[in-house]
């Protein structure tokens, strides 16, 4: 009888009905690769049973799911570690402290004070008191009578000293702006590179998952066809 014929599996050595015989050349490549990992001598002309083939099909699907879960876990660990370490350019830029010399500090203070309402009001009060005291109190016979030559000299000296100090502060401000522009460029460049890297990873994952899903669908279709063949028989 045809149904009573048996064959011996080339991987387990067990006997199975002839209608469950599957040759290696008919096995899908990913499943065949799993079999060859355990049995390197297994070739396209060797044969196994459907039940044994289904075991390797299940292994293939479970390995795929495990690898996907492992990849997600690794990605989560990388994200958490990066958040803990906080090795971003933004944090490095914010933590940088500018080292200024004594002259630079004085220039900044003078520039800040010279460009404030405090300086303007104080200067107006000083000039008013100076002129008022010489005109109304000393009747133009005091230490600086009209036309206030000493006051003009003081104002000229203040302007002569204040102008280069303000220019020094402006030069430093321009230097800070250039450094800030460089840091902004670094941040933008890093962001662009990371976005490109993320796009590449997403494309790679999509292609990889599509290929794996196609392979799984092929395996499932083969399993369904085997079940249908057994039902018909």
Automatic annotation (TrEMBL):
Keywords assigned by UniProt, alphabetized: Membrane, Transmembrane, Transmembrane helix
UniProt organism field: Flavobacterium tagetis
Residues annotated as transmembrane: 117-139, 145-168
Domain of life assignment: Bacteria
Pfam family, one: DUF1003
UniProt key word Transmembrane: yes
Protein name (record): DUF1003 domain-containing protein
InterPro entries: DUF1003
